[in-house]
Request: fold
Amino acid sequence: MSTPLLEADGLVREYGPGRRVLHSVGLTVAAGETLGIIGGSGSGKSSLARILMGLQRPDAGRVRFRGIDLYGADRAALRAARPQLQAVFQDPYGSLDPRQRVGRIVAEPLRGQGLDRAARDERVRWALEAVSLPPDAATRHPHAFSGGQRQRVAIARALVGRPALVIADEPVSALDVSVQAQVLNLMLELQARLGLAFVFISHDLGVVRHMAHRIAVLEAGRIVEAGDAAAVLGSPRHPATRGLLEALPTAPSC
Amino acid sequence: MSVLLEVEGLSLRVRRGAEYAYLLERVGFALEVGGTLGVVGESGCGKSMLALALIGLLPRGVAASGAVRLDGTDLLALPERARRATRGRRIAMVFQEPMRALNPTQPIGRQVAEGLRAQLGLGRAEADARARALLDRVGLPAGVASPHTLPHRLSGGQRQRVLIAIALACEPALLIADEFSTALDMGTQAQVLALLAELVAERRMALLMITHDLGLLAQVCARALVLYAGRAVEAAPTAALFAARRHPYTEGLFGCSLHAGHTAPGTRLPTIRGQVPPPFARGPGCCFAGRCGRVEPDCLPEQPPLHAAGPAHRVACLHPVVTV
Reply:
């Protein structure tokens, strides 16, 4: 079997003594697949997301992306690989710098990659086109866009470095259902076209069910159930999974 | 059953220079004592403005016309002083963001007691005792939180419970909940909703719930009102709506919801093309025409009126969806 794209093992995160939010979490993501991570509030989802994004050093354990330790000593290898590992956050209002033009926001992951200006502009144009934003979007500020369009800007920023993996933490939770569907379609389409892999973290089971090939259920900082999406949701074995499924609002049968 | 709230021809108008635009246009519905109504629609359709108009907290510059009758009294015609007496007392509201709706510097007990003292004129000791009982009732007993607890010590779900306690304090006849559980994870959401539904039934309160989540609509509300671009486009019993949508907009909303339909995983979700037109860009005809797949020339000259589409089911569309 080929090496997985992302490999995490033994991840521990503590906020002070006795406040351990992750207990030895391990997971792998293969190229082109979507791993869904579900769990209630306080399950450790967001802490795990930040560690997998390379934003928060774990207290123990390792995360390797293409074999490179995200928190290891080889800074040069990490810098070269970094554009291929990107993040999309929940809040399209808070995650874009309001003072920067969209072109500059989207180009951010390309900084330090030794590209000249023309090459950078070309990549930004490509990324904006990939998310169906007009090319002149680059010259405008985030406030000129609706919530769904801002989330497209955030996805364009994630795409610009031609990533292999995007870690998405509640990427559609703040959006209207109509816009939610557009963003999910976009993610599926990009996956089919570019072979992207996603880690899709959400409390919304309906969304995860739609997006994920495999699902891991996080409870109190531990992965309590993991496997094929249809199996985990179809015949859940752990009480935590069953609890999450019961909370899922369903259409009345009529 | 007797009617508690009767909204008739409610319009909300804003001005920009010499131009006028409507945030809500001739919206009407009724809610009986103990009834539950869900208001659905995308952002920008006027859902929250409707809630603010009912409770009388419209932003400056928004002019209301029409009638909002509570037990037969038109609230829009009342002077502000009399209006203030109904707020919290007869109509209460639970807001979207529990962190911002609570005062971070005040213990939760005092925030619950505040309405009791101001609206019912209770003394401090009696108000405090009632506040404690209310916190107990919403699932925040002494072991979990004391009346002296500050909001930041509580989780999102617990803060939402405090807000429910505040809203229920004066036993209002109508409770308005504006997207109030969106910020919570699904487990907590289910618990808080169950509590709300229980209290509404127990106290015979009417509930008007604003939501974009069709799953919640199905769970909590007997009737549904679909708002689009400030207009009521469909009104029906929730079960009837889940069985058959008549307005293409409602059909579109249900199509892209992952909680209402049964879409196969990984497949392309139906979407509604385009966006809700902003108030100053709405034409004279059907407000959905620009995004509608069923649009015909006769949709454009004027807004189609609501007409009967089934038992207690009304739709504002000249070419409604027909399901066989």
Summary: The radius of gyration of chain A is 18 Å.
